[in-house]
Design the sequence.
């Protein structure tokens, strides 16, 4: 069954990791998808791979989510190429593992700019068009770090907590216009970002706190995003969906 047939989706950070799995899943579900990422080479190689299926509608657009003009130009290009967009997933994000007292002003600003301001700019550009057409689905990729005081995560956790709050306000304002806005809080997922940031000790500590006993796959996050982006989730908005193997129910806080 193709739950997203005829829909137009933008996936920021869609060239890699969770975003790339969402792009792949949405294309399989029948959506026309724009991969919006600053890594255009990676985005274009994903387009090539997906175009092995002649029915796939997918394009790659180079952009930086922190630059308002690039965001607006990207959404306008999507509208020109496919119409819409009907769906926005904000997966572009960067990590930082640094204690509060060690975090520099520049690091703080950079993490907030990509993870929070980026979602604000993309959400606004997409939602303006969704409101005009009376339909939209926005899914913000937050993090379990946004709902816990995890040591070493000051900037990252604050950006992801802010994203949950932004999701709720957007949902409250946009619901009457036919636009739903939800967040996903993944637990540890195997991606290039975690392969770089999670040492063996961190991985072992996380796995010990995950009831399902393993890291999640990008495909498992993509399935949740597809549900929230589909007609089936028509009465779900302002929600935060945990895709974390049950980790939020246990002691989430590791200090490594
Ligand atoms: P990833 O593999 O590093 O993918 C992120 C993508 O976003 C990369 O292609 C990256 O490009 C792009 N990007 C970064 N900054 C950008 C910008 N300013 N403008 C446009 N694109 C930009 O990361 P991931 O692990 O899939 O994470 C995706 C999202 O899930 C992030 O928001 C992350 O915080 C969240 N998350 C991940 C996990 C996890 O365990 N992996 C858990 C919870 C939440 P570059 O490679 O050039 O930076």
Sequence:
């Amino acid at each position: 069954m193709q739950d997203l047939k005829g829909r137009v989706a933008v996936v920021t950070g869609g060239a890699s990791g969770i975003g790339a799995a969402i792009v792949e899943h949405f294309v399989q579900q029948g959506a026309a998808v724009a991969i919006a990422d600053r890594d255009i080479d990676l985005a274009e190689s994903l387009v090539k791979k997906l175009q092995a299926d002649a029915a796939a509608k997918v394009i790659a657009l180079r952009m930086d989510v922190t630059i308002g003009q690039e965001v607006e130009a990207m959404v306008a290009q999507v509208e020109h190429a496919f119409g819409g967009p009907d769906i926005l997933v904000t997966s572009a994000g960067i990590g930082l593992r640094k204690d509060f007292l060690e975090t520099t002003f520049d690091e703080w600003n950079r993490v907030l700019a990509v993870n929070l301001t980026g979602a604000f700019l993309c959400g606004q550009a997409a939602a303006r068009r969704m409101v005009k057409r009376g339909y939209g689905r926005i899914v913000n990729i937050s993090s379990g770090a946004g709902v816990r005081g995890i040591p070493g995560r000051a900037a990252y956790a604050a950006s992801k907590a802010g994203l949950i709050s932004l999701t709720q306000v957007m949902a409250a304002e946009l619901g009457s216009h036919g636009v739903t806005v939800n967040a996903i809080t993944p637990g540890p997922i195997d991606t290039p970002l975690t392969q770089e940031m999670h040492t063996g000790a961190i991985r072992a500590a996380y796995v010990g706190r995950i009831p399902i006993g393993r890291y999640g796959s990008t495909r498992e996050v993509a399935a949740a995003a597809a549900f929230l982006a589909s007609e089936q989730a028509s009465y779900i908005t302002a929600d935060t969906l945990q895709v974390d193997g049950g980790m939020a129910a246990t002691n989430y806080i590791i200090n490594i």
User: Anything to note?
Assistant: The chain has a mean pLDDT of 96. The chain has one domain: 8-242.
